[in-house]
Write a structure and sequence with these properties.
S-adenosyl-L-methionine-dependent methyltransferase; S-adenosyl-L-methionine; SAM_mthyl_Trfase_ML2640-like; alpha/beta; Ppm1/Ppm2/Tcmp; EC 2.1.1.-; about 300 residues; globular; binds S-adenosylmethionine
Length: about 300
């Protein structure tokens, strides 16, 4: 159960979701036709213990297996993994475009085990701020202690429901420079009012030319045999690994909150969206119908602040 001031270590509560995402990135990295390579993901997951290594091995087996061996109508390479892969590609491309446009200040909100500060190419002079809960960042910093980031990386340990802008300022954030913000896999873990406050703070700190990228879900999903099978498979895998993680208990509903597309458009930002199915198709990863139906509930969004509005 969530509360307004809950906190967690990497293997606990919302912290564990960062491990789940990293396990998928490790699995994708092993594919010969990988759409991105994250050489840090496996190390981070392994450092969290044998249960997480088990999950990662299962992900690797699933991503290379292709069709569902159990015939449950959903490929073992699940729609969840497909969505995570699509969004990684989308946000990697987002940062490449932001760098090409001259942006040299980046804020990765809820960075978790995101290794972009280590694995992407950044123009010299770029600063990447990473914000997450203290214990999550402590874990990542200790596992990657002997690695050199590819950029001036500044890890800021603070809860995003608290006064994180102050911490950003104290660590050298420049509000006069355009910023590329990222909120990947975050919004679902915030209640609607905390999301609104987050957007207010981001807009207040964003010089003209700033951008933000994020992912959202849409629409109430009908339960279906494929969804139930996916949920069961996830439960089975977590139980085998001895891990307690119930995603549904950690999420706040999409329903009832402001749609980020509307929020940014109403505040004068130019909004564009991408969809995971098209993105994966464009990258040669055609999805089966059952996965497409699930992926169509996810939206990838970028918004750019023009000169006139804040
Ligand atoms: C699903 S993971 C995504 C991590 C990373 N963005 C990625 O995609 O690999 C969710 C992350 O959000 C962080 N998070 C959620 N709520 C937060 C909050 N209120 N303050 C700081 N971090 C938060 C968690 O600690 C976790 O690292």
């Amino acid at each position: 159960m969530r509360s307004d001031d809950d906190s967690w270590d990497i293997t606990e509560s919302v912290g564990a979701t960062a491990l789940g995402v990293a396990a998928m990135r490790a699995a994708e990295t092993r594919r010969p036709d990988a759409l991105f390579r994250d050489p840090y993901a496996a190390r981070l997951v392994e450092a969290a213990g044998s249960g997480w290594s088990h999950i990662m091995r299962a992900q690797v087996a699933a991503t290379s297996a292709g069709a569902d061996p159990a015939g449950e109508g959903e490929p073992a390479y699940s729609s969840l993994a497909a969505m995570l892969i699509a969004r990684t590609v989308y946000f990697d491309e987002y940062f490449a475009a932001a760098s090409a446009a001259g942006i040299r200040q980046v804020v990765i909100l809820a960075s978790g085990l995101d290794a972009r500060a280590y694995r992407l190419e950044w123009p010299s002079g770029t600063v990447v701020f990473e914000i997450d809960q203290p214990k999550v960042l402590e874990f990542k910093n200790s596992v990657l202690a002997d690695e050199q980031p590819a950029v001036d990386r500044r890890a800021i340990a603070v809860d995003l429901r608290q006064d994180w802008p102050k911490e950003l300022w104290d660590n050298g954030f420049d509000p006069t420079a355009p910023t590329a913000w990222l909120a990947e896999g975050l919004l679902r873990y915030l209640p609607g009012e905390a999301q609104d406050r987050l957007f207010d703070d981001i807009a207040a700190l964003s010089a003209p030319g700033s951008r933000i990228a994020l992912n959202i879900g849409r629409g109430r999903r009908e339960d279906s045999p494929a969804r139930r099978a996916m949920r069961e498979r996830r439960k089975r895998l977590l139980a085998e690994a001895g891990i307690t993680l119930n995603l549904e208990e950690l999420w706040y509903p999409w329903e009832g909150r402001t749609d980020p597309r509307d929020w940014f458009a109403a505040h004068g930002w130019t909004v564009t969206t991408g969809d995971p199915v098209s993105l994966l198709t464009d990258h040669g990863r055609e999805q089966p119908d059952v996965a497409r139906a699930e992926l169509n509930h996810h939206i990838l969004m970028t918004a750019t602040r023009g000169d006139e509005n804040r």
